[in-house]
């Protein structure tokens, strides 16, 4: 057989094979009403259809090109958005946004209840020195606020005519009782009763055992002098406070706990107290009392914590941080606190699926700790959630917009409203039509190859002073299917052939 004849037969066989394939493909498309192609063998991803690369509402069951020669983009079965608003993010965008994920797992949630308070004096350890008689202070033995005193230590010496009179009555009664004991028993008994009355009077004046005109008063308790209201030589009246003394070997911390946390507090509960004055040091305390009233303005109740102060470091008036241990110590399914998005109505986490896809997942939360939050419903152990991303740290309005965008994803897995960056060369500027023709390199985020196309201008002055042939860097966004508008354009050095920079 001649070579020419062999070539002719081979060409005929190839044409017949192509024709048969075309007829089979057309018949399958017509009978299936535009059904997607069957799943390829070998475990490959199933293609549902092919969509227009420019975002236009045009699909095809078979591969094809648009009017500019761009390939239609395949849409896979596992890319179809569901009711949860799944969104796909390119690896470049994930890296740019700084997305980090962490699996949900069993952890002990730190449920410590934190409150603020202040150090106060133990009211049960405060005494006042207030004489029950009139007199004059002849000498002060303790004469400064803040001085430490011991129980029984002399505080001051006073002169009092009232004490002198009571002492004389006692001495006369005692002498009369002795002198008349053998001569007149009835007089002796009367003198005895008079002596007992004098002693009772001195006891009531709290100077029993001292019958002179000058009396020395001792401290009734050990502690620190908080108040001193007299000076040497001053006159005092009955009931007037001269000293106020407090024992600071133990103190109170009064903390305010919000109404919703009261169920987590009980008397006898252990607590840790820290003070700004002693960073890094913690003091052990216990809840001694829960006050029975609620402050209507702050919706909080006071707690009284008792703690020892043997070193004297805790001074009344100090600011304190209180941490009450309320956790049961049982591991629970939990995620980092930064993974929860709370808009005030619902709580969601962003599930990290395969191939850069994310889906907002509503959850029901339980105990909140310092770093982790218990998840009671909506997640399983091992599912990964987003814990860090720049768009999650944006303002509340942007966060709500992001959630809305997740929930309203288009059914074609289309392009999210975002800004894209690229480099190219100006081919033409049409200010009358408010458009510019740019030759740019491939843009992977949109699956665009290197090509020339027309863009709208957000403002006519964006292209002012730019002539054809100028190398530029530009940003654009998709405002409608097939409508791409340049929002910024700057002159740049000519890009290398076949390169472009894309990002959001």
TrEMBL record:
Domain CusB-like barrel-sandwich hybrid: 128-246
Domain CzcB-like C-terminal circularly permuted SH3-like, chain residue ranges per copy: 333-393
Domain CusB-like beta-barrel, residue spans: 250-326
Keywords: Transport
InterPro entries (UniProt xref): Beta-barrel_RND_2, BSH_CusB, CusF_Ec, CusF_sf, CzcB_C, MFP_Cation_Efflux, RND_pump_MFP
SUPFAM superfamilies reported for this sequence: HlyD-like secretion proteins (SSF111369)
Gene3D superfamilies: 2.40.30.170, 2.40.420.20, Copper binding periplasmic protein CusF
Highest taxon above the source species: Bacteria
Family: Belongs to the membrane fusion protein (MFP) (TC 8.A.1) family.
PANTHER family tied to this protein: CATION EFFLUX SYSTEM PROTEIN CUSB
Name of the protein: Efflux RND transporter periplasmic adaptor subunit
